[in-house]
Design a protein that fits this description.
By secondary structure, the protein is an alpha/beta fold. 46% of the residues lie in helices and 13% in strands.
Length: 594
């Protein structure tokens, strides 16, 4: 397995999205965008034929996606909703009808019309603040590319036909691509683009194959047949490693498998430190279908249920009954464990509704989340009624996102009070004591957390957005992504202030950002006194095991030192050194970068 003399060892760093270590040969897959060679005007008498050509490509795409859905392996069938969303995109007016209208009115060929429609949708999605929802444009792009291939007759490699054990290397993979993967042959994959919230990442996790995304230049630096080491826990990719490196990773690979197997067996035990401090560990979900995995991984409830998907997959706004049925089912399945439902955290994009919201110069700070809901009370009322009605079927908690000031909380609670009276008059039941909380994800909310704490039952710190707003960076912008630093002293101080104000008011404080599932962050989050952490389900066994290994007294001593440090690098380096000392097996097994 020695690297070829003409090959040099190369190491790349990407975003880890599905854990595990694999060693194997690279198989480059061309998933580059379809090149539209011709953009041309058409004669009036050819318009109907061009529309029919486009509709035929739509039908072909629909058949292909339906076939992929029907052939999905049993272990990922619970994620078939991803392909359902692709099928819905096919039928949405913003893509289908807009393209046909452009063909008829602008008299241009179908490929050109589709391209223009997609670019218009991309502009709309760029206005969405929530990273997970914003990244759904990747699904629209995937569907558009499939239609373009059917229009052009340009075939692409069928991943199901791969006949040897390989690691896929691609610029990007769509969820449809990942459903085709034969995991007896495909060991894992790496891509140039992508993030932790992409559907491709979700599918990799469901298939339980290692994956690293966001490598930027993997397809340029890796040749077909190169030997690769991919570490889905740290995001490291080694190209043409030497024998010593191969042996080192093989040992790590074996140790990780044994360790994960051992902690999975005890994942349902509580997260309690050796000196008796217990913290609740919950899961973040986006879809009803994820609830089974939540229970399997030992979650003690759902700390964040993002509710945007029902709004995105509907041609119009979802009805109160649709929302109610979804929330009720989640509450029933999780009972008696709590479910925290976050109200709509989405901007007024035309793709999902008839709202006439103008384009904004700075959409990340524009009309969205609680701001949109208060401006559009009919939308807000429908969701609040559904949540209240579902509250009698389990332990439901309600949470308002993107709170920047007290007035928003007072207005939202006033509307909630009005709806309670309506339900009383209609004879509909609800939990009169349902807890109501707010997301702390804007620096102003941290500053006035003492004021907010008097009016709510709990805080939930959303560190993903808090870090972006506090440090003025866009984590999906490759030029400044390196500045996304959870260990920045400002962030740690904000979390500390929020927890302190929550404790003074006697309310619970949770944290539901990616920090909650980061092994390096656990000692600090414990020491800060958080009541609960909420994360992706697959992170739960490891986080619980870390909590059970660290005495709270020791974590508090480390916090005293950390608070005195001046930079994010100093904090990270200190925590890495401490964690390797406190839980050496995690360092030895490669759960931290070298």
């Amino acid at each position: 397995m020695t690297a070829h003399p003409s090959e040099s060892k190369d190491t790349m760093q990407g975003i880890p999205v599905s854990p595990g270590i694999i060693i194997g040969k690279a198989h480059l897959v061309d998933r580059s965008r379809v090149k539209i060679l011709y953009q041309y005007l058409i004669d009036e008498k050819l318009v109907s034929g061009e529309v029919e050509r486009f509709e035929k490509a739509i039908r072909m795409t629909e058949q292909q996606l339906q076939t992929l859905k029907n052939k999905m392996p049993e272990n990922v069938k619970e994620h078939s909703f991803i392909l359902d969303s692709h099928l819905m995109i096919l039928k949405d007016s913003m893509l289908r009808e807009s393209t046909m209208r452009r063909i008829k009115e602008e008299k241009i060929n179908a490929e050109w019309a589709l391209k223009k429609s997609f670019h218009e949708i991309r502009k709309i999605f760029a206005q969405i603040d929530d990273e997970y929802i914003r990244n759904r444009i990747q699904d629209v792009e995937s569907v558009s590319e499939r239609i373009l291939r059917n229009l052009s007759g340009e075939a692409q490699e069928n991943l199901a036909e791969i006949r040897e054990r390989v690691i896929i290397v691609a610029h990007d993979l769509s969820p449809a691509d990942t459903t085709e993967l034969n995991i007896s042959k495909v060991m894992g994959f790496i891509t140039d683009v992508g993030g932790q919230t992409s559907h491709t990442a979700i599918m990799a996790q469901a298939l339980e194959i290692p994956a690293v995304v966001g490598l930027e230049s993997a397809t340029a630096r890796i040749s077909d047949g190169d030997l690769l080491i991919v570490d889905g826990s740290t995001g490291e990719v080694v190209i043409n490693p030497d024998d010593a490196e191969i042996i080192r990773y093989q040992e790590r690979q074996l140790q990780q498998k044994k360790y994960k197997s051992s902690i999975a067996r005890i994942s349902h035990l509580p997260a309690e430190t050796p000196d008796g401090y217990r913290i609740s560990i919950k899961a973040n979900i986006e879809f009803l279908e994820e609830v089974t995995a939540v229970r399997d991984h030992g979650a003690e409830g759902i700390g964040l249920y993002r509710t945007e998907f029902l709004y995105l997959r509907s041609k119009g706004l979802p009805t109160e009954e649709e929302l109610f049925n979804d929330y009720r089912e989640v509450a029933e399945i999780m009972a008696p464990e709590p479910v925290t439902i976050r109200t709509l955290d989405l901007g007024g994009d035309k793709f999902t509704s008839d709202l006439q919201i103008a384009n904004e110069m700075n959409p990340a700070m524009g009309l969205r989340a609680i701001r949109l809901c208060l401006r559009e009370p009919a939308i807000f009322k429908s969701q609040l009624r559904a949540i209240l009605r579902a509250s009698t079927f389990g332990r439901v908690q309600l949470m308002f996102p993107m709170i920047s000031g007290l007035q928003e909380v007072l207005q939202a609670k006033e509307m909630l009070s009005t709806i309670r009276k309506e339900l009383d008059s209609e004879g509909l039941l609800y939990d009169e004591n349902m807890p109501v909380g707010v997301m702390i994800e804007i620096p102003s909310a941290v500053t006035i957390s003492d004021l907010l704490s008097r009016h709510v039952d709990f805080f939930s710190i959303g560190t993903n957005d808090l870090i972006q707003y506090a440090l003025a960076i866009d984590r999906v912008n490759e030029h400044v992504a390196y500045m996304y630093q959870p260990f920045h002293p400002a962030i740690l101080r904000m979390i500390q202030q929020t927890v302190q104000e929550g404790k003074k008011a006697g309310i619970k404080v949770s944290l539901c950002g990616e920090m909650a599932g980061d092994p390096l962050c656990i000692p600090i989050l414990l020491a800060l006194g958080l009541d609960e952490l909420s994360m992706t389900a697959r992170s739960i066994p490891l986080v619980k095991n870390i909590v059970r290994a660290i005495p709270l007294a020791q974590a508090q001593q480390d916090l005293e030192r950390v608070i005195q440090l001046s930079t994010a690098k100093e904090v990270r380096d200190y925590l890495l050194t401490r964690m390797k000392k406190m839980i050496p097996e995690l360092g030895e097994k490669g759960f931290f970068p070298a």
